[in-house]
Each structure stands twice: as C-alpha cells, then as structure tokens.
Amino acid sequence: MLIKISRRSNRRFAGILAGVVILAVISAIVALYIYITVAPEQIGYARVDSTPLTEEHIGPYKIGNSIYDGKSPPTAAEPTANNEGRDVYAAGDGLYLYTTTGDYDIMDMTVRDPGHTTSKGITVGSTREDIRTAYGREYSKRSEQGADIMVYYDKSHAQALEFWLWEDKVAEVRWKTHYVFKSPPAILRYL
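^ that's the sequence the OP posted. Answer follows.
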C-alpha cells in the first residue's frame, strides 16, 4: 500500500513539474517577443531628453498635415500600397508618406534617396557627425536590420526622427508618430 501511494505521488509531482516547465518556457518566449518588439525603443525613449520636432519638415511635408498641404501633391494621387492599415503615397525622389487608411493626414514619412532633406539639412548620404551637429547629442541608439539607428524623440508630440545608418552614412530617414512614445513604464528609466 505504501509503494502505491509513493508511485502516485511521484506521477503527480512529475505532472506538476512538467506543467511548470512548460509554463516557464511559454513565459520566456512571450517575454523575449515583447522585449524584441517593444523594449529597445521604450528604453531608448526613457533614457534621453526630448528634442522638439514641431518645426521639422521633410521637403514640403510635416507630420500631422495633409499630404496636399505640401508645395506639390504626391506624385501618386492614390496610395501606392497599404501597409498595416496605413496608406503609402510616393511623393517622388524616394519620399514616402504614410496616412491612416482613408485619411490624408501624414502619420509617418520615410526618405530613401537624397532628393529630400530634413529642416536641418540632413539627407541620405549625410554622416553621423552631420546629424550630431544638426540635432545635438541627446539621442537614443539601437541596431536593427543591420543598421545603426540614431533616434531623436519629441516626447510632447509623440514623435521620433530616426536616422538609419550603414557604414556611418544615412541610408534612410524615418519620421514617425507611434504609441510606444506616449507613455513608457517609469521603471525603464532605471534600466
């Protein structure tokens, strides 16, 4: 009788242990996913002071303005693509404007060719030092897709100006609004 109780207890213990191990593995995978997708931006955001971007523009376009407020409308009157619920308009010379689907107010911009510059003269081909001279040293750094990324945050307006560098030269400029920048957890300031 005593042996049966012992075997039953061992089986129960093994089942509980297996459940705990499975739960731990799933939790680790979820935590890693959250860290990879959100945390690097939030940590960078929490560690730097705000850089005002309200006077920023890329070519004739500004975040929050209509795609038609620029000196010339985008070359494509209709969106050229739909990316995760956002319409993408080609504005020429490697400039892409992103709006919420069905709306014309600019949420994000991407520059991939030297035909457009930021308000402070930075464009594709500018150097890391050009960026520091123009925007200052209060930026966050991260790496993604093989690029070094310098990010200036305007915390009051939930915007980020990103410079994607390959071999210390700007390959892409991204100016965006994003939920990540609105309210990161306070604990991230201490990481």
